[in-house]
Amino acid sequence: MFALTFLGTSASVPSAERNHPGILVEAGGSRILIDCGEGTQRQLLRSGAGFRRLDHLLLTHGHFDHVLGIPGLFSTLRLRQSSDAMTVHAGPGTLDVVVRMLAGLWGEGRAPIPLELAPLSEGRVIDAGDFTIDCFPVRHRETDSFAFSFQSAIRRHLLPDRLLALRVPDGPVRKELAEGRQVRLDDGRTIDPDQVFGPAEGRRKLVIVGDTETTDGLDGHVADADVLVIEATFLARDAATAREYGHLTATEAAALAARSGVKQLVLTHISGRYPDQDILAEATSIFPNSRVAVDFDRVTI
Hints:
The protein is an alpha/beta fold and 301 residues long. It is globular, with a radius of gyration of 22 Å. The chain starts with a strand and ends with a strand.
């Protein structure tokens, strides 16, 4: 299961209702922050999520509306004497922005908390066992921008009625079967895991795309996602302006979801020039299962 909390849903200029971009993803026992716009630490408090177990920060790119909250968050983690090291995953150019920003405040090569910098290249970012995170590049105004794909592991559960019918005793034998190993019972019978497992549960897929100037090349990455989170900064009537600033229209985001077998589309990075209902109306005319995220929305997969 993945649980998303939208900490900030504005475009480059925040509003009274929308903070700069940030999303908290909870998966298993992990809590992963994607982007850290100005004010993110206060949004963590206001959402009730708090600061506990924040040890991975994934950055889509290095524009200031996505990273300016980092110094404040790191400073607070230091004051709270967090012992966990923070790993920042980002493209090399974005990591350079982070390093220079921190150096300007704390000195060259220094940070207020233990820090690990992990440069991104297309492929696997994290393998946590019960879920994985992969990244893939997107095009946004000549930055080294990345999007992220979360996938849960396929799970199968032991069937109590089959265990009972096959007279499999409680204890270590069932544990071995649950771990996928064949076992031999005291009476000499051999039990294969497939004899006592139920059907595989479907894999869950979440894709989060930050700022992007085009959907070209994204279809394969977002295909069959249970939830696609993607920007929709402009309406189609302002497509020329969207191209100039390297952003999508709601029409383009919805068309990507429609042709890629996405189950639910969540639009974010919303410009204050449009009412939410106009963004939503444009998207739902193409992909009905669309919603416009607002700050503190929570989506569970």
